[in-house]
Model the fold of this input.
Amino acid sequence: VVVLPLGNADLLNLKIGDKYKIVVTGTTGPLANARIKAKWIAPTGGNIEVDYDLDLKGEIEFIVTDSTPRGEYRLLSLIYNEKSFDVNYKLRVAELPGQLTVSLASDSPRTRNYPFGSENKLFSKFRFKAVNQGFFIERFTLATDFPDGENIKTIRIKYKNRDNTEKEVAFSVPSGGQLKVVFSRENSPYVPKDSSADIAISADLRTKSEGAFKGSTGIHFKDSNFRGVTESTLDVITKINEVKANKMNIIENIRSVDQ
Done:
């Protein structure tokens, strides 16, 4: 007894709704209308024994549903007429499509007063939520409120990568207040599967001698130039929602009063 896949299962990612057929064949052709027992190793690691009544074509039908565990399945053996036949045949059920959203974190600051020349002042914190798969965030855009955003000299971005290592990067703000940020995969912010992760945005402000003036600005998350990559299937998403942060007051006096 051997199995004959209809296609190369080692290269096939099955998705919800797929019906994958495996032909079980003997020396004279498909085992039509036979009853066999199949032993599988599931992605969870346990052995599963399943009884199959083969149809006229001698086919086993593997149907993927919402509840089918994701990962690799290995068909170890088939039992027919009380004899066991080694098979060692593999197929893979793909991860569910990844979903990613972003919102303003609950502890993102409300309006505060920041004096000219302040350094490393928190402006906003964005919370990313991943469903079904983990995500690498490789590109996004931040925007200030023009013209008051010209008071911001440097934007600092704090986050954690895939290794759960805290990272901080700093960028000079271009004229117009739109900052496009690009990360390499290994250094990008990471959002774990079915969990959330925060990206904190702080800023250094210009001094009076550098041209600072009174005003108010936020640092907002824009949907342009976005790129997120799923961890398991490496699917790319380029669409995500925008998030508007609270504005901070840029003041001249020396004392900073939080509100």
